[in-house]
């Protein structure tokens, strides 16, 4: 993808600098830029792979707890309601 993008940019650059006559202008060599961008992407992908996984947030942990204890929470709510009715 990087190479395709840079080759396309070189073609457009040749057309623009040629002012309608692209054959008069030599196409720029973009191999250095391609190599540099590949190294940049590889370095960042390596860093992302080494990055530890994010810890779950408090909200995510609460959602999991409620999902695991749903029926117990309902039972406690019913018991509190029944105790309130008995007053």
**Rg over CA atoms:** 31 Å
Distance between the termini: 73 Å
Count of the domains: 2
The biggest sheet amounts to: none
Task: Determine the oligomeric state from the structure.
Answer: single chain
Description:
The structure is a single chain. With 87 residues, this protein is mainly alpha-helical. It folds into two domains: 2-50, no CATH class; 56-87. Helices cover 75% and strands 0% of the residues. The chain has four helices and no strands. The N and C termini lie far apart (73 Å). 0% of the residues are buried. The model has no long low-confidence stretch (mean pLDDT 91).
The gist of it:
Helix content is 75%, strand content 0%.
Question: Any key phrases for this structure?
Answer:
rod-shaped
SSE inventory with pairings:
Blueprint: H1 2-18, H2 31-50, H3 58-68, H4 70-86
């Amino acid at each position: 993808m990087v190479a395709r993008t840079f080759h396309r940019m070189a073609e457009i650059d040749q057309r623009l600098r040629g002012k309608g006559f692209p054959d008069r202008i030599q196409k720029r060599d973009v191999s250095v830029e391609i190599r540099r961008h590949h190294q940049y992407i590889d370095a960042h992908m390596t860093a992302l792979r080494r990055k530890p996984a994010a810890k779950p947030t408090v909200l995510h942990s609460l959602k999991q707890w409620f999902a695991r204890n749903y029926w117990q929470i309902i039972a406690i709510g019913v018991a509190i309601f029944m105790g309130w009715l008995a007053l």
